[in-house]
Amino acid sequence: MTKPTYKFQMYRQLQANIANIYADARKAADEIGIPKELRGKFGLTGAISGCPAPLREDIMEASEQGAKEVIPLAKLVDEIRELVKSVYGDEYDAAPTSTCEAGLWVTFDTLFSPPMMGRGDNYRSRYIALYEKHLHHQGSYGRPFPPKYKDILADRGSTAGEFGFYGKRQNNLDTVIIPLAGARYDVHGIKYHPVPLLTDVDPDGSMENIRKHAEIHMSQLAGFTSLGYDTPGYGYAKKDADGTPLLQKKLGQYARELDLPYVIDNAWGLPFVGCSPVKTGADIVIYSMDKATGAATSGLIIGKEDIMVPIRRALGMHGDRYGTTASYGKAAYVTFDPGKEALLTQIQALKVLRDKPEVLTKPVDDLERIVREEFAKINLPDHLKQGILISKSYNSTAVEVNYENTWKHGELGIPIFSIEDMYSGTNIFQTGCAQMGVIPTVAYDGNIFISPGLGTCDSKGQLIEDVARYAVRALVRLIEITCKYAGLTE
Prior knowledge:
The chain is an alpha/beta fold. It has helices spanning 7-16, 18-32, 57-67, 73-88, 100-111, 135-138, 203-216, 246-258, 277-280, 305-314, 340-355, 358-375, 382-385, 419-424, 428-435, 465-485, and strands spanning 42-43, 47-48, 51-52, 92-97, 125-130, 143-145, 173-178, 187-188, 193-194, 221-227, 262-266, 284-288, 299-304, 389-393, 398-402, 438-439, 443-444, 447-450. InterPro entries: PyrdxlP-dep_Trfase, PyrdxlP-dep_Trfase_major.
């Protein structure tokens, strides 16, 4: 296979050989010995919205038992509030939603967008979003600023235009997108787009950028947002002694100085065990309760009580107009109602996280060992092997495989697929897994997140090691195959 000179040539060569890569991947699945009955029924993560993990036994039992009882839903929400307060303190509150994205939507509209009511024209407001991964979630609710980013989300999602991510933009709201110091935004992929490469992010330099841009936009500034993850590939390698990412902590301090809200999107993260509003200083942290936590599909907003009041009011949960301490009724965002069964599963999941966190952390330890063992065997040149960084995250119940450093020495590295590749079907590290009978995971921007749950855990949530090893081994083999057709190996 010809070794390309330039990046775009490598991706052009991969595009031309997709059929060959798929054929080799199917053959490799047989060589690995993935059982036929397992194919298409297990995968590299149970944290994908479109294919969530099966519920644990204890979660199912709690849901089934509660479903047979007559329980006011406001009582279930109050039980969630009590669990949150028992961990974070009485100054924090909570509100469940149908999804994490619903939580983002109601939070940004409540805290960042200007009022629609009143005489005269509306003013505009702006919030600052870091230029990091998954920007179409936490950074898509306003019109992008500066204008060079105005088309940054055009090709993301299943649908374009007003029915796609553009349609999420809220009333007179702008998003100021801030590049991170130490990050690289190189162009990669068959769908050739800039990708955030974040292992060298400098928290202090990034805060300088944030402060500089905040001063420019101060008259319109409404708040800040970032992800809540804690791994090198997401830009959060540098942490304090408690393991809190320094960039999140410094951003929380700065937001307090300005008396503006700081909202963290911790979709693929755990309450209690993972990203904490107490340690980061965030006003709001939003979780997808099905991705890592193990509840049914739903979201959870946790934040400081005073900030939570308008959010809970917008959800119809904060109390009736005639004066009650809780309600479960109609309001602007009643469409984000999670429903009884989801509430029941959230309560059980939170109890386990508070009282028995090892139920979720032990499978991560077991998976990390398997990932390290299998990637140690990868058949690649030494300079590529040395550029692979493996780390684990209890917050995301995941093992991160980051390989952006394979590009650091002026040579072509392991192919990096953009998030636009995922939506266009040209992310070979995802589509190739499907050819092997393995449901893929988040594997773009030079970063791969692997987590337990999708057919790789038993009914109690513990790792089935031989099944998990099949999935990881398939990924390793697919990387080898792809590198061959990229012209990186013999």
